[in-house]
Amino acid sequence: MFVAETYxxxxxxxxxxxxxxxCIAIVFLxxxxxxxxxFGIRPELIPSREDIFSxxxxxxxxxxxxxxxxxxxxxSNAIGLFLFGYLLYGYFGPIVYPCLVFFLGAVVQMIxxxxxxxxxxxxxxxGVVYLICAFWLTLFALVERRFGVLQxxxxxxxxALVMLLSSTFDPAISYRTHALGFVxxxxxxxxxxxxxxxxxxxxxxxxxxxxxxxxxTN
Length: 218
What we know:
This protein has helices spanning 16-36, 42-45, 49-53, 60-66, 71-92, 95-114, 126-143, 149-164, 175-202, 210-217, and strands at residues 2-5, 205-207. It has 218 residues and is mainly alpha-helical. The chain starts with a strand and ends with a helix.
């Protein structure tokens, strides 16, 4: 028997693009307020090590994800947020994206800040982008049994390299936050699959026609 269809073969939810775009719009609004320092709000949006571990202003972990240094920074994350937000909401629902994703993104932000010296601040959704990319690739590798194991791994690794690796080094970028986000996304994906494996596998359609499967994988 061969797997002809999987949980990811069906179309995503119809309003996935709207939800994904809405999340980006919220990110832009917070970033815009940060750029213009509306009502002197800028200092209240940026999480520093002292804010989190001394003043316990944990809500800044979330606002720190939403604000970006400039338009280039915003657009560099907006593409990944839209693409993977569309996929995660479309296939796994609002509990995964945006709810759990942004909660885990805040956790990643906090862990990353703990590794930096005093006075360090972090802004931007890069950690979240790496997290949702890793989550999606992990689920793809575990779910898409229409393809062989090696095919799934090569596609996932290749996609990650193309999407996420920067060709130039920028000292202003927190690469450790990217790495932490990616690891968190893999762990989240593994836990999600373990929890919902029966539901995911129940969506598979099997066939004994090897030729039809071969056509789908070419």
